[in-house]
Amino acid sequence: MPNLPDVVLWSIPAFVLLAVIEMISVRVHPDEDAAGYEAKDAVTSVGMGLGSLVFDFLWKIPIVAIYTAIYELTPLRVPVLWWTIPLMLLGQDFFYYWSHRGHHVIRILWACHVVHHSSRRFNLTTALRQPWTTLTVWPFYVPLVALGVHPAALAFCSSANLVYQFWIHTERIDRMPRWFEFVFNTPSHHRVHHASQGGYLDRNFGGILIVWDRLFGSFVPEVERPVYGLTKNINTFNPIKVATHEYVAIAKDLKTATSWRERAGRVFRGPGWQPVPVPEQGVPAAEETAAA
Question: What are the alphabetically sorted keywords of the record (predicted)?
């Protein structure tokens, strides 16, 4: 097993220091148009982050077992060397893009990821607002393990990707140099991703690189100031409600569903999907709707 560090744990002191610096910066040089900080919101985000560490540890038990079984079955092996680690990071970032995109367009996956978008603020503590039900993520990385990437190496790459994304959750940085903005995910790109305006919804899914969005048609530049949060905000700081509210909404929709087709749609279609309304006699049925 490769001996690789836990990047997230090593980065916690830096997370705390940078968040404190940002808080002081906002206090000393406030931007009236920025979302800024709210004490209850920041505490909730930090609480969600601490909770995710506990739940992720629990989810790792079955996930590591599955990855290990796949790794033992495949004849392929990718050695952990100085020149293969960047390639593994590139591969992990590619599959992260599709995992992230999938968690926006499939409702049962969105129920996990919606937690990260539930804050109406956008600051470094927002990066810590992580879901507690990440058991839905592992299938997207099976191809990497099947290609011979050791599960520990995959965990290292995933941690590095997560740590990179911490600094892009800020309004204190406007734009990076043009070449950097073209290749990498930046605060400007990620502000778009967290916005709730129609033109910004479901855009800029990249983790470290923004080139995947440019290649697969999901990139949108920041033009107007984003409005953060959800299209229907939950208005709660209770961590349990933040972590579970979309699962509760799915359960309610399933309870009132009138057909198996509707039940499947409520779970596997987009978050805003609605069934075809039953037409009155002689009136044509309306088209199905699916909010982005």
Answer: Lipid metabolism, Membrane, Oxidoreductase, Transmembrane, Transmembrane helix
